[in-house]
């Protein structure tokens, strides 16, 4: 029994490492990784933990700058910059690509081709500006590391909704290799962290807002390209984070 438990914990630790390696730019050193592709596919349950960690580090930076006397708007801008460095702007890149593809493509094939283009267009630039403005305004108002952590967890849980509800829009690409095995545990973990960190009413509002954003992206992706891609999942995380933080700001 103890051997089974040790093996189970080792597998979960490796999956957490896979999630951190995908979702952040943190130096993992010799952190063990799954030995088979199936292990990386099962790592979806740990995405909320990766988001919570990134949010917590950025929220800590905001708290430190506020303690040093920096104005809230400026402290939040620097903390958002830290968050983008921590995550490599992975999800923001997805948001820009999805906005350009869905906004500029005439048909499914053209939309997918635009999303693979590394150049950014007007739709993508506007989406990035709006998402950063929304998050910055909400986080400056909230000024709470717990809000950063909860929003990070909920946003990465929300991207599991299109992952679980839709098939991949392409046969290749990063998202095509992601599995659905960790979707339900990841959703439960993201919501559980929100209720652990926030008052019940605030947690419920933020969870519902993030879930609605995830379902909305899934519906839109199905209509636009018939499935999900890595860009769509990343965009979903950003939009869910905007929605969760906006919901938390309503009670301020």
Automatic annotation (TrEMBL):
Enzyme class at the top of the EC tree: transferase
InterPro entries, per database record: CobS
Catalytic activity, reaction form: alpha-ribazole + adenosylcob(III)inamide-GDP = adenosylcob(III)alamin + GMP + H(+); alpha-ribazole 5'-phosphate + adenosylcob(III)inamide-GDP = adenosylcob(III)alamin 5'-phosphate + GMP + H(+)
GO cellular component, one term: plasma membrane
Protein's membrane topology: Multi-pass membrane protein
EC number in record: 2.7.8.26
GO MF assignments: adenosylcobinamide-GDP ribazoletransferase activity; cobalamin 5'-phosphate synthase activity
Lineage top rank: taxon: Bacteria
Localization per Swiss-Prot or TrEMBL: Cell membrane
Pathway given in the UniProt record: Cofactor biosynthesis; adenosylcobalamin biosynthesis; adenosylcobalamin from cob(II)yrinate a,c-diamide: step 7/7
TM region(s), chain numbering: 73-90, 120-140, 146-166, 178-196, 202-220
Keywords: Cell membrane, Cobalamin biosynthesis, Magnesium, Membrane, Transferase, Transmembrane, Transmembrane helix
Cofactor: Mg(2+)
Single biological process term from Gene Ontology: cobalamin biosynthetic process
Protein task: Joins adenosylcobinamide-GDP and alpha-ribazole to generate adenosylcobalamin (Ado-cobalamin). Also synthesizes adenosylcobalamin 5'-phosphate from adenosylcobinamide-GDP and alpha-ribazole 5'-phosphate.
Similarity comment: family membership: Belongs to the CobS family.
Stated name of the protein: Adenosylcobinamide-GDP ribazoletransferase
